[in-house]
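Batch manifest line 318
LIGAND: NAP
JOB: complex structure
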Amino acid sequence: MSHRDREVRDKDEIFDLVILGGGPAGLTAGLYGGRARLNTILLEGAAVGGQMTTTDEIDNYPGFPKGITGAQLTQLMEEQARAFECKIISEMATEVFAGGETKTVKTVQNEYRGRALILCPGTEYRKLGIPGEEEFTGRGVSYCATCDAAFFKNSKIVVVGGGDSALTEALFLRRFAREITIIHRRDSLRAERIYQEKAFAEPKINFLWDTVVEEICGNQTVEKVRVRNVKTRKVREFSTEGVFMFVGVVPKTAFLKDVVELDQWGYIVTDNSCRTSIKGVFAAGDARKSFLKQIATAVGDGATAAFAAEKYLEERQG
Ligand code: NAP
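JOB STATUS: finished
ARTIFACT:
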């Protein structure tokens, strides 16, 4: 625990605003909370920046016409939140009690109390749940291209999925791998047209359409996948040294199921002002039930949630 962390804990104070999660939504809420002169603290259990940190090139966040790396954008957002006196603590939230006037977030080490709470827990990549997936995770199976691409220099690999993640990560992996096969369960992609155009133009990337992966096989490391064509039902083996899984995301909200209303997929239900089912508790970012999941929308959410929290606190003070 850093000196800064200890200082905060020893005060045992009640903050105006506690923010759970330090991705673009949480960092923006921190910036807005700080600027509104709310005593604001942000808790982040993993790396500040969330999924943004593992994104190689961001070309759809306004203000950076030449693109920016996720690491750089994270650093800038964190610096800006801190500049407005948002405290940022590296602790993982495990439990939330939000029914009363004071909201409490328990972390592994401490307990933080606030008069308002913004939930920005984000999402994580979905697992396919097939044989070999768990066994070979870290030994050929990966969910993060920027983390693991260097292990696959000159390799023949597969990427599973047909959304924005599958295509952007495949486009990043082409700098390392020799050959990339995108395995998609349909014959058309879900990803944005701009990523499709780039992937179709890339000679190292090819596609296996209408195909699902049923098993990942190997000895010490991945050697092949067993795939099934969903139209012909034909099963065959496909040799590969790596499997990158991008088959969607799931919200990291299991620990919030008795705290606020979630939809059937676990996304936090809010109104247009990011207010959840519980007074004084707001939600922002990818874990909020919303139409679009982008850094730009997460940032908008963070600003909205912090503004709504500020208004809520003002009303409380009368
Ligand atoms: P996604 O958009 O939900 O796409 C998931 C892909 O995996 C789909 O192609 C889906 O197939 C496939 N899939 C799902 N379950 C499967 C299964 N059991 N077996 C085989 N395939 C399966 O998820 P994502 O690509 O991770 O993106 C998540 C969110 O982040 C999206 O809102 C996306 O727009 C956003 N994002 C944006 C960017 C960007 O703007 N640069 C980059 C990354 C992510 P079907 O198409 O058949 O459903």
